[in-house]
Amino acid sequence: MGKLLIIRHGHTGLNQPGREERLRGWLDVPLDAEGLAEAAKTAEEVSSCWVVDAIYSSDLRRARQTAEALRKQVKAPLHATSDLRPWNLGVFSGQRIRDILPFLNLLHQHLEVAAPNGESFYQFYGRYSYRLRALLKLAEEIRNCIAVVTHVRNLLATPSIIMQSDIAEVPLKGGPQTGAIVTVEQIQGHWRIGGRTHQFRAAVGSEMQAVSCLPSR
After folding, report:
1. pLDDT per position as a tens digit, 69-90
2. In which domain, by residue range, is 150 found?
3. Domain tally for the chain?
4. What are 12's strand-pairing partners?
5. Residue 92: inside a domain, yes or no?
6. Which one in 16, 86, 96, 146 has a CA-CA gap of 20 to 30 Å to 29?
7. How far is CA 84 from CA 7, 40, 98, 167, 203, in A?
8. The dihedral of CA 196, 78, 137, 2: what is its sign?
């Protein structure tokens, strides 16, 4: 049976809660002290539950740092790729989300329109879905599982890609917390999505199925 562990990178200085949270996008921001601790904790949790044969990561620094913490724990080869980057929102990156939310809503309503100096949601979705499907196919061929370190926007799009639902239904907000682990497992020929966080469960609705080896938190 194939299995992916899809992991959101750890906390950064732009992941401030509430009104001061800023859009990360393609900004190459590093993990902060909280994020480094999260990455270490996530790596320990993965190593205690699963055998990882390979790690694939977004090539942005915050994801690579998270993936490197995991690599040190599970001793699996690490591959970084730009296909696992989040939606490139161009000039909006680094700005407070509350200030640019009207523009983000507009881009979400017109999926073919690219953000200034960025890409459209269609472009992001196509890039990520191509890589995710390739990783699902690879997961079917390996003995244990593959770990994927990526971003919240990718995690929000994952259910739509796997379940082949309407791209317009991908949530604009929400998603799992930094450092979260989401499992994608093939059971009786069908891919099922599980997770550890109530935020992600709410985002994907009743089709969520938890398959992790530890209690939800």
Report:
1. 999 999 999 999 999 999 999 9
2. 3-20+30-86+120-207
3. 1
4. 31
5. no
6. 146
7. 11, 21, 25, 18, 20
8. negative
The answer to whether position 71 is within a domain reads yes
Phi, psi of 46 (to 5 degrees): -60, -45
- Do 76 and 55 form a contact (C-beta atoms < 8 A)? yes
Read off the DSSP letter of residue 175.
-
Predicted confidence at residue 195, as pLDDT, reads: 53
CATH number of the domain that 157 lies in?
3.40.50.1240
Residue 179, domain member (yes or no): yes
Among 74, 8, 62, CA closest to 36: 62
Instruction: State how far the Cα of 211 lies from the Cα of 52, in Å rounded to an integer.
Output: 16
What is the three-class DSSP state of 98? Answer: helix
Query: Could you give the residue ranges of the DSSP H alpha helices within the chain?
Result: 33-49, 61-74, 97-109, 121-141, 152-163, 198-204
Amino acid identity, position 66? T
Largest CA distance in the chain: 47
Give burial (CB, 10 Å; 0-12/13-18/19+) of 24: buried
215 domain residue, yes or no: no
Q: Which amino acid is at 79?
A: H
Residue 23 confidence (pLDDT) above 70: yes
pLDDT score of 1: 65
Backbone angles phi, psi at 22, to 5 degrees: -115, 150
CA atoms within 13 A on the CB side of 72: 11
Instruction: Number of helices (H) and strands (E) in the chain: give both, helices first.
Output: 6, 6
How far is it, in rounded angstroms, from Cα 184 to Cα 181? 10
